[in-house]
Records
---
Amino acid sequence: MRKTRITTFVLALLTSAPVPGMAQLAAPSARSFGLAGSFAARARGYEAPYWNPANLGLPGRPGWSVGIVGASATINNNSLSYGQIADLYGEFIDDETKSQLLEDIRRGDPDRLFQLGGELGASALAVSIWRFGFGFSAIGVADLQVSPDAAELILFGNVGEEGTGKDFDIAGNGDGSILSNFYLSYAQPFSFSALPGMEFSIGGSVKYGIAHALFLMNDEGSSFALSPLVLNADVTLLKSTDGDAGRIWSFDLGAALDWSNWTFGLALQNAIANVNWNVEDFELSLFQGQADVTGGELTDTTIAYSDLSPAQQQQVQERLESADPPKRLRLAALYRISPNWTLSADYMELLGGTLREQWGRSLSAGVQVSPISVLPLRAGLATDFSQVALAGGLGIYAGPVHLDFSLTTMTLATGDGVIASLSISVWPGTHY
């Protein structure tokens, strides 16, 4: 009976739950974050494959460049602002403040889930040589959702907000993934004798990724009862087991045009993509427990994929195989006011794919000013037309060695987020 319960529930979960992002590359440079993502026309050298591989063939490209290391960290939630959290750090929280926090989480909906997400990205090595680019990167993503009752229990204890005690539904769910990848890019430039000064380029990238881990967790109905005082836990987990959950192939296509002080770009990321999951390396687990004032007990049951029935195995396969990388269209423009002053803008539209993507569309703009050549300053603004991200960053250039840092605040409609990024690279000369 237990085995049927586990698999029936998890198969229902697989039918409805999104799979976390698996086909993303980690952005190789902090410069893009400092410009709020308005970077697809700016990217040159080792940065180009991530944004638009056609840029490898444009004028202004370096003969070579190396991204030694790049790292970014993101944390966001759907309810509370960074200012609220910062103001409460280390402070005593009175009941009035707790109630305000709970109201911000519920937003008028007693069943609204509190969401907390995070992402870590690292580019271990990225290189451009002539019109070629290649690199290695890794990215990890995790998301957690908990019921407002769980938040109330944490804030007020078992007496609840009203102070009289209540039963709490503390259900929630979560997902996460870890991916490493390799990419190789090439661009071919063209010139037109009838249009002197105009340079055109087309390019492509092939990306190969390994999904080292994938998990989907769902709470089947955990609760905290007041009378009698009992904690019940009932959690189901689907996860990969051996560090090789699947393999991902995808292709990016791009075109770019450089004319006078302008650069324009068009890129289709993950234009062709395929995911092959190693379904035999997944397992289903159910954790059940109960605790009261006298003690507690926890039991768990795990079923390997090979022990599921053929029909159940087929359902797991179909759900995993339906996971497609996000297909994104990017339109971009760059205007060079002077060698030390540039403006850029990007528009991104999500065209398909079932894997994780935070914004379905976005419009971003950025400006880079270099009061002195060794200290470029950057600022940017992005929106998905319901929320806004503000970004800023700077570079410190010591000859060919470039250190870039950026910080982005995501002022969401119902929450907040922060992205911090740092990168170190080597260039033979200046770049946009």
Note: Helices lie at 2-16, 30-34, 48-51, 82-88, 95-106, 148-156, 310-321.
---
Amino acid sequence: MTRSFDDIEYLHLPTAERLLLAQDILDSVVADAHGDPLTPSQMAEIERRCADIDSGKVQCLPWNQVRTRFLSGK
């Protein structure tokens, strides 16, 4: 379902209140994202990948390089 926020009158709110509203929305998204715990195999995979990074086995790329590569389709 596509939702339009055109009918919600938030633009009349003072800047500080709009910032609080935005923060509340972001906090609710983060809370939802953390709602499902990781399975043991997912946690093991995260730990393995972190160990590979810590040991130098895997080199990370800066975000701007990853983004450019992703957007170019390569």
Note: The mean pLDDT is 86.
---
Amino acid sequence: MQVELRVQDTNLLEAFRGYIERKVRFALSRFGGQVGHVDVKVSNDSRAGAVKTCRIFAEIKPFGWVSIRENGTDLHAVIDRAIGRLGRAFSRRLARAQELRFGRETVRAA
């Protein structure tokens, strides 16, 4: 899993970068080799007041990408919510792909 962190219009310390990477790795570690590139973008929109934005793009091998966007005023809460949603979206996407791959079994009267 490759985690890339991009920061725009905000000051992040190295410890905060480590926090984000640890949270992403923990949320996606159960999916193993199906996780590809993960791109996390954190920004501070000064035009909208104190609104922080976290966008996450994660690759599901070989099924495509999942994208999550979360906004709020507290950066820690925004990141936590986005990463929580990422884990749930990843799980749903893999379940759908497995249903399509194996199909649903139907009960037939003999």
Note: The CA atoms of residues 92 and 98 lie 10 Å apart.
---
Amino acid sequence: MKGSEFIRGVYSIANPQMGRTRADKPYLRCLIGDRTGDVPGRLWSLDDNFTMPPEGFVMLEGETQTYQGEIQLILKWIRPYEPRLEELRDLIPSSERPSEDMFADLVKMLETVKHPAMKALAQVYLEDEHLMAAFKKAPAAKSVHHAFLGGLLEHTLNLLNLANAVCPLYPKINRDIVMLGLFLHDLGKTRELVYDKVFGYSDQGELIGHVVEGAVMLHDKAHEVMATKGVRLPPNALLVLQHIIISHHGVPEFGAAKVPMTPEAILVSMLDNVDAKTCMALAETRSGHAANSETGGNFTEKIWALDTKLFKPDPLK
């Protein structure tokens, strides 16, 4: 979307709320988006028959404008809409790579794990068809990084590729633990997030969260390995893998239940941060849906998740 552009069509709507103007008149504020991203939406004139549209999809008409350096959409009218299946891909952000291709690459990476118990544990997860179907589809977050269908799988595959490159530099690191830890660290997001319409949090996500979900899931899968594969995990394997899951956010203020306390947990947390922040920065500066790309100037607005504004131009172009 650009400044002063007429818009009419089907879009997603998130976080619709009623606000009050300085003159104490009600107005609608929301986020309007499609697969390329979203922008703030405002409907200033509400008649007596106006009904708040629910999160999901809407048909609308409006005009974009620049306000305080950002694009926003001034709505003329808006109403709920149930999109056809073929319309959904244009409405919900999706990975540029097919999920099946990424999943095949991920399976090949996990096949490089050598310890029999770790291979058996990975296999138990991969054989869970319901979980893997969700894993292929889920975003990695509601917003911030890899917030698109297939984003969780893409993020996890990126991390496995990073670990494959980095682990040889540290011969004493336990590569199998790092690879399993990265595979498992965010799988709780398949239960934390909802992504059939606009992205949001499930009741489990609000009340429990993916860190605890992932640790509980691992406890159950460890018992399943023994029951179905006849393989017992080494005494500390379950403990350190659960520690990786609950510590991968690094510090408590970012959601970690514990700070990383093993070499493998430290590496997992740092690689997770590398991929999340790098992809976040690229999305804000070098992608077609960069929210600030149409507002001019060499810098974005402050990106709160990165605690800074970003220099947008590619320095060699």
Note: The radius of gyration is 22 Å.
